[in-house]
Amino acid sequence: MSFQSPLRRNRNVHPARMGARTSSYWSDLTREHGFESLEIEGRLPAELNGTLYRAGPALSQRFGSPYGHVFEGDGAISAFRIGDGKVAGAHRLLRSAGYVEEERAGRALFQTAVSWPRQLANNLRGRFKNTGNTAVLEWHDGLYALMENAKPTAFDRELETIGETSFGGVIQSAFSAHPHSVPARRTTYNHGLRFGRTTSFAVYALPWEGAARCMVEVPLEHPVMLHDFMATRDHLVFLVSPMQLVMWRAVLSIGGFSDLFQWNPDAGTEVIVVPIDEPAKVRRFKVDPFFQIHFAAGFDEPDAVSVDLMAYPDSSALATNVADIDKPPICGEVTRVRIPHGSDEISKQRLCDIGLEFGQTDRRVAGERNRHLYGLSVNENMNFAIAHIDFETGKEDVFWFPDGEFTSETLFAPRSPEAEEGDGYLVGLAYNQASHTSRLIVLDAQHVGDGPIAQARLDHHIPADFHGTWVPNQVGHA
Questions:
Q1: 3-state secondary structure of 143
Q2: Could you tell me the residue ranges of all domains in the chain?
Q3: Are 177 and 163 in contact (CB under 8 A)?
Q4: What's the CATH fold of domain 15-472?
Q5: How far is CA 247 from the centre of its chain?
Q6: What pTM did the predictor assign?
Q7: Which residues on neighbouring strands pair with residue 406, listed in sequence order?
Q8: Tens-digit pLDDT profile for residues 415-470
Q9: How many Cα atoms occupy the beta-carbon half-sphere of 352 within 13 Å?
Q10: Per-residue pLDDT tens digits for 71-97
Q11: Which residues pair with 80 in a beta bridge?
Q12: Which of 1, 77, 127, 223 has the largest count of CB atoms under 10 Å?
């Protein structure tokens, strides 16, 4: 039996319920198009050459039937080709098999856009729509849209949907939306949960040269939410928080988000470390409970493995962010979790004063100790910011967007393949509520507080998105 990842809320609550300050940001896409030349404002760096890909939910309803939560929305890919002093942008819906089936039927067939009996029947039959609305992976020169609990959806460089893939039958259940690459090993790693009579997760390796493979499958005590993990040069680290899925409610589609998951602090947080060279020798132990949504970095030390993440005391922040999205998102404390070898204890160190989410690094040093961290911050007044933390100097450099402007994750693009860590640019998207349009923004990664040095405006908005990837023109790598 399988079912769609239950990040949802009561279907009677529509995203239009969101506060007036943000509802337009999450509203449905109004125009699809291929690559179109965009007018550039400011100074576009001549050395910035590549394509920014972003994924996000773009439809809040099907044929007038609303989804219960924006997380269910049909995915769309936006892309911006940058090079030779020019920018071209595109935005297209993913034509998933479920989306195409609904188009042919002329009505909604999946998720909370349908009646409860239809939801139950879909769950019991293992039918759900793979929306691909969360992240983008590049691997072997192919592009894939990812979501929480499904196989990758391939699309081409013109953003036309190719279809779901299992990488040659390797992925049997799901492939999460958070792959992590380790350049030193020339491999990208990921995991995928498998629900059923027992719960487990598979660990996948995607060599940059060679075929995908499943490294190991790890059993879990309970069905849980396992959104992200971290890869170092020698280890894969999973921190399994006690945010447990109430399976019978998920299968029967009963209740909203807060009903489907329960925080069980007595179970603790389980630390699971998978040695890359000997994946069968899984190390696991439990510590006092804490919660994280996303990781930012990780590295090996002679006597420990360390991972940097955005930490929360419990899952209430996530419940607020997904069930009350008219409220300002809650950002986590940037925390270094140190896992000593041969010990069943961990230590935690707060790394900066500002709260962040969507932490990003210079991916050329992924798996190694990093100096620079970039992320999104939001204050209690719903003002959004992009922040740069320099761990060597302790400097926190922040650019706050004016009221009525919103952004999400920004990605680092190096000035050149040989440039020092952090020498480059941040590329991302920003939305202006007054004009209801989005724009590509480029910031100097060493002077984030100065704001965008260049931007290229679209004549429409791109609905709020989640994650993406930067693909340099010089060489494809992952």
A1: strand
A2: 15-472
A3: no
A4: Neuraminidase (2.120.10)
A5: 24
A6: 0.93
A7: 431
A8: 999 999 999 999 999 999 999 999 999 999 999 999 999 999 999 999 999 999 99
A9: 29
A10: 889 999 999 999 999 999 999 999 999
A11: 52, 89
A12: 77
